[in-house]
Amino acid sequence: MEFKRHILITGGAGFIGSHVVRLFVNKYPEYHIINLDRLTYAGNLANLKDIENQPNYTFVKADICDYEKMQEIMQQYRVDGIIHLAAESHVDRSIKDPFTFARTNVMGTLSLLQAAKVYWESLPEKYEGKRFYHISTDEVYGALKMTHPEGIQPPFTTTASSETHHLAYGEEFFLETTKYNPHSPYSASKASSDHFVRAFHDTYGMPTIVTNCSNNYGPYQFPEKLIPLFINNIRHRKPLPVYGKGENVRDWLYVEDHARAIDIIFHHGKIAETYNIGGFNEWKNIDIIKVVIKTVDRLLGRKEGEDMDLITYVTDRPGHDMRYAIDSTKLQRELGWEPSLQFEEGIEKTVRWYLDNQEWMDNVTSGDYQKYYENMYKNR
Ligand code: NAD
Ligand code: TYD
């Protein structure tokens, strides 16, 4: 079959990437979707079992830092669109091992950019019809002040529809024009990669787009991140390590809403633009944790709230950003995207998924799947 487009999705075996790959493979049978992933601890092909045999799907195990391999892949698959999600993504790991973050997030992104540039510039039509879409985070903007610890109701300075707003813990939001001010090695590496992507547009005319999204939650998230880690710990009645006072605020978006935004922006976003993606859904960590405890207890048939005593306050994360809050008005106004799920519904779906997929959780927490992949790819 002759495909209409050849789209390379990097990091497709990870949390958000697997939702993006699934959406594109199912929605666009006329596109060839090439999922390129190194399968680090965070990459898991079991996340894509339901689509792995689709005729428009190909998996390639490769490291984005391997520049020659990236050049080879561009040519072999005649790639005309790239959605770049591959990254080291966990702040706590970046504090322990910043080099790995600089390697993958900065050098890896640069290697992918350069491979795309060399390939696309070698074609008669050059950059026409091409797109390099880089997925970034709101963490590059740094931290907002928590001027209203009790929370304030809409309307705020943002012009997005007020029904989509939850409480806000300050008047300021991250805009596309907010100055970069990263604090963690993770966010510093993502900021650096964002700059490289924009530099490739400004210098070489590469058709790039960058989006900065808030915290995602939902199925297939590696259980080092707050929500899946805590769901699993509550189930096994293990302590819940709350950093500092649990007062830090994050803006949470259901992962399928992010994948849907990526689809819209990939197809209709303006070249060289930045779009912020977020749910207007700010929560203090401790409040989220209470909702998660109650939901897990209820779904497991325990007394609602009986696991509250698992909450254990521990030493704060160094450089812990106080508040993130995205203003996604531009995306809503220009491209018509809005989050589809209210948080209560999303968290219920999420908790239910982790409880129903205990095997997935046991697998990724036991390390067996790592060994499986090591054996499987040992000779390649
Ligand atoms: P994840 O850690 O779950 O997945 C990352 C994927 O990248 C894994 O499959 C991993 O194997 C792969 N990978 C890592 N290094 C690689 C390399 N050198 N070569 C090829 N593949 C490699 O991450 P995620 O949470 O799905 O995040 C995906 C992207 O979205 C990242 O760029 C992240 O910065 C960004 N983001 C994440 C969030 C969030 O809340 N999770 C929010 C905003 C933006
Ligand atoms: P996390 O899921 O690591 O995402 P990020 O740091 O990228 O926002 O953490 C979400 C919030 O939860 C963050 O403020 C740190 C906090 N947290 C804890 O309190 N305990 C934990 O064990 C983890 C993993 C996170």
From TrEMBL:
Name listed for the protein in its UniProt record: dTDP-glucose 4,6-dehydratase
UniProt entry tagged with the keyword NAD: yes
Domain of life: Bacteria
Reaction(s) the record says it catalyses: dTDP-alpha-D-glucose = dTDP-4-dehydro-6-deoxy-alpha-D-glucose + H2O
Sequence ranges assigned to domain NAD(P)-binding in this UniProt record: 8-350
Needed co-factor(s): NAD(+)
Enzyme Commission number(s) from the entry: 4.2.1.46
CDD domains in alphabetical order: dTDP_GD_SDR_e (cd05246)
Stored InterPro entries: dTDP_Gluc_deHydtase (IPR005888), NAD(P)-bd_dom (IPR016040), NAD(P)-bd_dom_sf (IPR036291)
UniProt keyword annotations, A-Z: Lyase, NAD
Family: Belongs to the NAD(P)-dependent epimerase/dehydratase family. dTDP-glucose dehydratase subfamily.
Keyword DNA repair carried by entry: no
Gene3D superfamilies to which the protein is assigned, alphabetical: NAD(P)-binding Rossmann-like Domain (3.40.50.720), UDP-galactose 4-epimerase, domain 1 (3.90.25.10)
